[in-house]
Structure formats: structure tokens, C-alpha cells
Amino acid sequence: MAHPILEPARPANPEDWSEVFDAVHQFYWLEDHTLEDTMRAMREQHNFIATCGPRTFRLMGHGLPRLTRPNRKKQWISKLGEWNLKKNISSQEMEKIVQIQLERKTNDGKDTRFTVRGRPAAQENINRWQRRQKKDRLKEDFNSIPISPQTGKCLLAWHT
């Protein structure tokens, strides 16, 4: 029994992404919507659907093929990272935040607030990260403060 073969979906190319950058930046980054909401809004408002490969068939338990689509969310996450629009703070960044915070509190008695990629890092999130890590002491290596690969600038800022 022959099954119909569908044409593969065309992966989103750089021109497709550049056309929606401003809308994604506004909706996801500035208005602080979730990735899922952003994907839905770009599909509904801009007719933009990111794909990352051809559609494929997978045999189901009953022997009939089922059309499967690649993980679009993975491509979105990759593109947001490329654009430096990642909302989450990495463990490396959080460790540096805690180190700097501890040093400034101990040596200068200062409370310190942080921004990462231009967004404020909430003290509750810093405290939660510390509890989860359960670290007795922090490494004293300040040589690996996160640097943007695109601009070469430090992504971490702090002030009193």
C-alpha cells in the first residue's frame, strides 16, 4: 500500500527571521511574553512559522505512518540566543553575580543590584539559585565574566 509523500517544509531562512526581528524583540523581550506566546503571535500576526527541517513520517503502533514535524521551539531558542535575547540567567552568570555580590557586601558593606543583558536580575532568583547550588564557598576565578560573542562587551553590569 503506497502512502502519499508530502513535500518537505522549507526551513526558515535568515531573511525570514530578519523580517520578524523587530516584532519578536518588542513582543518577547520588551513586553516580556513567553516563548510559546511569541511563537503563536508571530504565526497569527505575521504568518511566520519557523521550521528546522523537512517533515518526516514515523510508523505508529498500528503500522500506519504519521506525519511528524521538527521541533520548532528548538529553532526559536537558537535564534533568540543568536540575537542575545535569552531571558534566563546561565549558571556561569549567576555564579559571577553571587561572587561579586558577596565580595561587595563583605568588603564594602554594599547591597548590589544586577542587570544581565539589560534586564534586572531579581534578588529572589539569585537567592533561589544559591539555595539550589548549596555551595559552601565560591570559586575566586573572576577571569571568565560572560562576554557577548557579537559585541565583545561584558553582558553583566552591577551598581549600588
Secondary structure: elements and pairs:
Elements: H1 14-30, H2 35-46, E1 56-59, E2 65-68, H3 72-82, H4 91-108, E3 113-116, E4 119-121, H5 123-133, E5 156-159
Antiparallel strand pairs: 1-2, 3-4, 3-5
Helix pairs in contact: 1-2
Features of the shown structure:
5 helices; two-stranded antiparallel sheet; 5 strands; elongated; alpha+beta; 160 residues; 12% strand
The chain-level structural class is alpha+beta
Number of strands: 5
Choose one word for the global shape: elongated
Spatial arrangement of strands, main beta sheet: 4-3-5
Q: What percent of the residues sit in helical stretches (DSSP H or I)? A: 40-55%
What is the CA-CA span between the terminal residues? 71 Å
Percentage of residues in DSSP E strands: 5-15%
**Discrete helix count:** 5
Number of domains: 2
Please outline what is shown here:
This protein has 160 residues and is an alpha+beta fold. Helices cover 43% and strands 12% of the residues. 11% of the residues are buried.
Descriptive report:
It is a single chain. The chain is α+β, with helices and mostly antiparallel strands. It folds into two domains: 14-82, no CATH class; 91-159, no CATH class. 43% of the residues lie in helices and 12% in strands. The chain has five helices and five strands; from the N terminus they run ααββααββαβ. Strands 4-3-5 form a three-stranded antiparallel sheet. It is elongated, with a radius of gyration of 22 Å. The relative contact order is 0.12. Mean pLDDT is 78; it is low at 3-11.
